[in-house]
Amino acid sequence: MSSPINISAPGKVSYSSLSVSPSATFHSPPASQGQSFMASNLAHRAAPKHLKPFNTEDIKILLLENVNQTGQDILKGQGYQVEFQKASLPEDQLIEKIRDVHVIGIRSKTKLTAKVLAEAKNLLVVGCFCIGTNQVDLDYAAKHGIAVFNSPFANSRSVAELVIAEIITLARQLGDRSNEMHRGTWNKVSNKCWEIRGKTLGIVGYGHIGSQLSVLAEAMGMVVIYYDVVTLMAIGSARQVPSLDDLLQQADFVTLHVPETPETKNMISAKQFEKMKSGAYLINASRGTVVDIPALIKASRAGKIAGAALDVFPNEPAGNGDYFNAELNTWGDDLRSLSNLILTPHIGGSTEEAQRAIGVEVADALVRYINQGITLGSVNLPEVNMRSLTLDEPNHARIIYIHRNVPGVLRKVNEILADHNVDKQISDSKGDIAYLMADVSAVKPEDIKDIRDNLDALSSRVLTRILY
Q: b vs e for 128-145, b when ≥16 Cβ sit within 10 Å of the residue's Cβ?
């Protein structure tokens, strides 16, 4: 099985050749010579065989938006072809690039719409090196067998710390004082400058970021309330309130940590500003569409809002430069004219620690999926895991069959595999899509081709992959 064979299906690229993984290290306490021999033998038997059924240099990866070096290093270390670009691409250039790649890594600016994905004939997987995945048409990707992974945890602390910094900065009007000093003006005032101790923080969205923020805020003496669409256990002394209106009426500081969905579009608009305390503050580090910016401008000018911090905007530039202007967002000049307003360029998760962690988490997920078909952490396909094959299982193949979730599929798949020894098999579904993995022993290259051809002929097929 050492020589490659071409068993690819039309419209998708697949590769087959055998490669051996690095040996695993077996850790054990001091033992006798006999025990040491047994440990050594077990170490050999347990050593996983990484499934790389292709010439790794044939796997093409495109990384956009300055994906962290840690992620690049992991992918390059596998031998893949990795192309790196610092910025996102306009749609026409993105379509041209995506036609040839098997993997694409993006952050929040790149839009992988159905139109773009329809051109990605070889694409197996998308890595979102960020928390959100709203920039990807997840439904289209799933229906075409394209897995999508993200990093839901890695930058939570960075965002939470930024929000704490913004709460203090707004309460003390530090942004205005700093700007005045830069202009040469000394303006020492205490009017409407506050300590945050004892003030009420209202967190909208009590997920990974919201709950971490809750802990930090309580440690600084704040009273924490939160609103979420599901009932969640409070951390510390935080308290869940039954509605968004309840939160707005009680909070001195309102901070938003929700995804971009039709339900969250303009979640904070004129009616919500009216319900907030006079002199309250608003912070948005979630998605730019969550806040109605013209309504915020009006509430600020009327004195209803004492200050705001915005890290995200409805329209954001594709790269760094002098692009945040009225041409990008018509209300840009009016927004910049407000006092006690913090504007930052979507840097909530932009710390060295967060980006390194995201690079590792997403790149590792991509490698697991490419090499072994494991979907743990996928946001659009069923999460399926299977024990790795070992070095003692050299003539095995891993069958991966992504298919429409319709009756009778498993029976037909098992009929195709009936003449082979199926060592283990697992299947799960998510909505209209199902994901099946099966490890088959004692297979020959001609067996693999027959299995693939028969699976590809099924009407339920979305994508067939065979790894060995």
A: bbbbbbebbbbebbbbbb
Average pLDDT, integer, range 20-47: 37
Q: Are 128 and 241 in a shared domain?
A: no
Going along 260-332, which residue ranges are E strands? Answer: 280-284, 305-310
- Which one of 172, 316, 420, 461 is the catalytic residue? 316
Q: What is the pLDDT of residues 168-193, one digit of tens each?
A: 999 999 999 999 999 999 999 999 99
Could you tell me if 134 and 232 lie in one domain? no
Assess if residue 9 is contained within a domain: no
- Evaluate the CA torsion angle 184, 188, 192, 197 in order and state its sign: positive
CATH of the domain at 360: 3.40.50.720
Write down the pLDDT at residue 36: 40
Instruction: Provide the CA 10 distance to its chain's centre, in angstroms.
Output: 30
| 58 CB-near residues (< 8 Å, 6+ apart) | 13, 15, 81
Active site residue 287: yes
Per-residue b or e along 422-447, where b marks 16 or more CB atoms closer than 10 Å to that residue's CB: ebebebbebeebbbbbbbbeebeeee
How far apart CA 144 and CA 136 sit, in angstroms, is 13
Q: Kindly state whether residue 25 falls inside one of the protein's structural domains.
A: no
Name the strand (E) or helix (H) holding 70: helix 69-77
Check if 57 is active-site: no
Pair 364, 339 in one domain: no
Q: Which of 102, 208, 287, 465 is catalytic?
A: 287
Distance CA 282, CA 166 (A): 10
Annotated active-site residue in 107, 257, 346, 368: 346
Of 295, 233, 292, the residue nearest 264 (C-alpha): 292
- Shared domain for 42 and 102, answered yes or no, is yes
- In this structure, is the dihedral angle defined by the CA atoms of residues 249, 251, 256 and 259, taken in order, positive or negative? negative
Q: Is residue 17 part of a domain?
A: no
More confident residue, 295 or 49: 295
Average pLDDT, the chain: 88
Tell me which of 310, 343, 376 is where a domain ends.
343
